[in-house]
Design brief:
Elements (H helix, E strand, L loop, with lengths): L29 H17 L6 H10 L9 H11 L3 E5 L5 H9 L2 E5 L16 H8 L6 H19 L3 H13 L2 E4 L2 E4 L2 H4 L2 H9 L4 E4 L2 H4 L12 E5 L2 H9 L3 H7 L17 E3 L4 H4 L11
Parallel strand pairs: 1-2, 3-6, 5-6
Antiparallel strand pairs: 3-4, 5-7
Helix pairs in contact: 4-6, 6-7, 6-11
């Protein structure tokens, strides 16, 4: 770790090394395997026609619906043969610098636990279903897989420039909550959308949110919502476009011109935006999840 890079301290479990990896994937109970199966079945009722084609193809290729929580080892062997990635178990959210290091080395850290029946519809900390079902299928796409590895390498630069919030916004609006244009219409590719039933519909069909074409300079200046449905989604035309706009962008220059905080609210629509849909923002204005507002 370079001396001039600041990292936020988190308490590492004593039995783990600096990579924060657990020695093996945990053994899940029969009920935990049933929870995976029920979550999988729920999403497969919703995602056809709403999830991007690359995600659906990856889901099928890795056969994640074969029954129960997938085995990381078997899944990694398949992934390695396609794009060189593997899935590794971690006990919890891990420090940013460790997360970046794993991504840069084509390892996706997945939470080694699964939600309970009580948290079936919403869990704050990413579990194995969010991480594996939501993220891993797209790692079978060569261009997106390269984007994820490049994002990991970019993380060190963001830390050095003290611009982690800016780079986090890019991750949020692409990897977690991104939309993509396909021949049959707008589809989701973000894991935060694809791993939950409500946002999978809301993101591509609701009247409330804005849908705006992705512009890197704009996105890294845009605040985001962590614990509710997004007021704004950003759209790409292809993963090749996403790769071009980010990996081939001079972030040294960009970071040098950024302010300390976000410039734009998460509901903002700018004059220079390429807008697909201006949302009513009814859901957010009614108070969002905490008020019981309908996600319309």
């Amino acid at each position: 770790m370079p001396d001039d890079v600041f990292i936020a301290p988190l308490e590492k479990p004593k039995d783990l090394g600096d990579d924060w990896l657990e020695p093996q994937q945990r053994v899940y109970t029969a009920e935990e395997h049933h929870i995976w199966d029920d979550l999988f079945a729920q999403q497969m009722e919703i995602l056809p026609g709403r999830a991007c084609s690359a995600f659906m193809a990856g889901l099928e290729r890795l056969d994640l619906g074969r029954g129960g929580v997938p085995d990381f080892g078997a899944m990694s062997e398949e992934l390695k043969s396609i794009t060189g990635w593997e899935v590794v178990p971690v006990p919890m959210l891990i420090p940013d610098h460790v997360f970046f290091w794993h991504l840069a080395n084509r390892r996706f850290p997945a939470g080694n636990f699964i939600r309970t029946r009580e948290t079936f519809h919403y869990i704050q900390e990413p579990d194995v279903f969010h991480d594996v079902f939501g993220h891993v299928p797209l790692l079978t796409d060569p261009v997106f897989a390269d984007y994820m590895a490049a994002y990991g390498r970019a993380g060190w630069k963001a830390l050095k420039h003290n611009r982690l919030k800016a780079l986090s916004a890019l991750y949020w609006y692409t990897v977690e909550f991104g939309l993509i244009l396909e021949e049959d219409g707008m589809r989701s590719y973000g894991a935060g959308i694809l791993s939950g039933p409500t946002e999978a519909v809301f993101a591509v069909e609701a009247e409330s949110p804005n849908r705006i074409h992705l512009d890197v300079d704009r996105v890294v200046r845009t605040d985001y919502t962590i614990s509710d449905l997004q007021p704004t989604y950003f759209v790409i035309e292809s993963f090749a476009e996403l790769f071009h706009m980010t990996v081939e962008r001079d972030f040294n220059d960009l970071y040098g011109r950024l302010g300390a905080g976000f410039t734009y609210a998460n509901q903002a629509v700018l004059d220079v935006d390429r807008v697909y849909h201006i949302g009513t923002q009814e859901y957010a204005q009614r108070g969002g999840r905490g008020s019981g507002a309908q996600p319309v």
